[in-house]
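Hi D.,

Good news: the full-assembly prediction came through. Inputs first.
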Amino acid sequence: MSKFLKKSDTHRFAILLMGAVDGELTEQEQFEFDQLILKHPELKKEMQQYQKIKEVTQTMKFKQPHTEVWDKYWLNIYNRIERGIAWIIFSIGCMILITYGLFKAVESIIAEPQLEIIIKIGILAVIAGVVILLVSVARERLFIKKTDRYSKEVQR
Amino acid sequence: MEDDKDVNEHSLILKCQQGDKQAYSVLVKKNMKRAYFTALGLTGSHDSALDLSQDAFVRAYRSIHKFDSDRKFFTWYYQILRNLCFNHLRDRARHARSFSEIGEYELNSIVDSSQNTSDQIDQKEKKELLWQAIESLRPQEREIIILKDFQDMAYKEIAESLDCPIGTVMSRLYNARKTLKKKLARYFNE
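Then the structure:
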């Protein structure tokens, strides 16, 4: 970059330079850029170097994968969508069954006359602890989902 | 022509929002190559690019009801894809394959006879050098080069995809190309 440019001009030139290389300058910006080049002819060399960089990168291409990758591409997505729905239904079913099972377990523990009171308290405490832990983890996941910038579109 | 494409995409998205998977398959097939190659440029791995680009399409489908159909699908989809790719890069313990293994470079079409570079470095070495330079860029720098030069996206489209002003796109592009210029100094015989 030209040593004769002021710091603010340097930043402006960098932006205009990119627009010129990519052919995305407006008429007014093109005029501004041409004036800068006229004033500082040494910048023209810099422009040519960046044009060459673009010329090189534009011609670089990734290898094409096997054609079967494209043939199966949608099918894989369709299967994932379908499996996602299946997992949701499966999870809802599990939650209903676990909740019902826990309820019945607590009910039978309380109703069991032969079980000592201390054992009853111990079992109920274990169940209560597991439930609180699950709720806590679920709440934390929900909070992260709402606040993490990555989770706006992405669930990790 | 561009307008026809937009109208077509708009109607496809409206159908997708009504749960039409067939319409979504058309949308996927229109964008899959672009999606895969962009992910490949970011991750440097065929398997990861395939997996992440497909995963992003699944997530996009699940959130399609939130999508403003007046926007371009790919710019919205790209935000999901880039988050997945950057998460992947952040978490990845293993090394990606070398970019020179996943890239092909049409050397003959760009050799500048005035520079006479082919005499200085043989073609294979040159290819390696170019891909190494791309690989060594920071992910954000590589991203902007991939979007602009590999995917040929306009500044406006890139700005929408990255959710930033056009000035920022130009500034990032300048920094990325500046880094690349330094790394390719030998190539340009400076």
